Amino acid sequence: MPSAEILPFPVRAPRSDEARLRAALAALDAALADQKEAIAAFRESLGQLGGAVAGLEASLEHYAGTLTTTQADLCAAREAALTLEATADRWLAMLERTASRR
């Protein structure tokens, strides 16, 4: 059976309280810098979202205007169709009267 040699972990020299505090403060500074970048990116994303929402709002307002115009056009077309139908009914009635007199 092969033998294995176990390697010990390297031993670090104990650090002073001041060295540990400096390392912690450096890590805190790095975290704060990362957080500052993240907040800036978040604010930029919010600005882009605001622009997209404004564009969507304008698009929906245009669409609502188009629907209103379409509704008015359809109402006018319906009225014209009803008028045409009434005219056709009168003509048919006149033709039927004329035909029954012969």
Radius of gyration: 42 Å
Query: How would you sum up the global shape?
Result: rod-shaped
Q: Portion of residues in helices? A: over 70%
Q: Kindly state the mean pLDDT as a whole number?
A: 94
Low-confidence stretches: none
Q: Termini separation (Å)?
A: 126 Å
Provide the β-strand percentage band.
under 5%
Give the H and E element order: H
Q: What kind of sheet is the major sheet?
A: none
Extended strand count: 0
Number of contiguous helices: 1
Overall structural class, as computed from helix and strand content, comes to mainly alpha
Walk me through the structure.
This protein is mostly helical and 102 residues long. The protein has one helix and no strands. The chain has one helix at residues 17-101. It is rod-shaped, with a radius of gyration of 42 Å. The mean pLDDT is 94.
Structural descriptors:
single chain, 102 residues, mainly alpha, 1 helix
Q: Topology, pairings included?
A:
Layout: H1 17-101
Please summarize what this structure is.
The chain is mostly helical. The chain has one helix and no strands.
